[in-house]
Amino acid sequence: MPMYRLADLIVSVEGAGEYTLKQMEDYRCTGPVKIVPQIRVEVTKAMTLRERALEGDGFSDEYLECIAVYRAYCEQALLHDVLFFHASALAKDGSAYLFAGKSGAGKSTHTRMWRETFGSSVTIINDDKPLIRFVGGVPYVYGTPWDGKDHLNTNIKMPVRGIAFLEKADTCRIDRLCYTEGRRRTLEQLFRPARWEQKQQNVMCASRLVNTVPMYRLACDISAHAAVLAYETMSRG
Prior knowledge:
Blueprint (H helix, E strand, L loop, with lengths): L2 E4 L2 E6 L3 H6 L15 E4 L2 H11 L5 H17 L4 E3 L3 E5 L2 E6 L6 H12 L3 E5 L4 E5 L2 E5 L14 E12 L4 E4 L2 H10 L7 H17 L2 E6 L3 H13 L1
């Protein structure tokens, strides 16, 4: 049975098809794993059918199975203080920066501007579905195999320095969010579990994240200036 390391948790995946296994290959544990998996995922037809009911008919069974595996992982990982956060995450100078927002807000475009502006000093951790986990009280963002349409991810972890919620604008401006607004926007970007105890854990971890990481509203255009403004502000915390 293949074993994977996701957010520093050992995960076993049983019954997955070729598409899912290929997607997860870069996160597969190499060599013998001497500890019992902390998370177990057993793929069933019912999981794929559930995803189709949620996502609609525009996706293949293979893709829906892969997403179902991620959902099963996220449901269990909440108990280990792991959050799914819908965002584009990048690393620069030893810290991670996350950019979230509604569909079409320009998350991938903004992270592309960082790469074009700062060059090889920027690494894309995950362009769509990173994970955040508290380790010793510090929130780290992790790459995952589920990485958006452009398939940009790196199997690394970095401490989170700041989170910005993007809005399109003709001029650039960045403002620090208060706790209430930061929490509201954070909850909009999280995985939505079905069970009551998972929902409570989700809210608790989200509140902890907002209390720990500076959060911003970033109104920006598509320009190098937007990337520089975001970095100079968020890197100072």
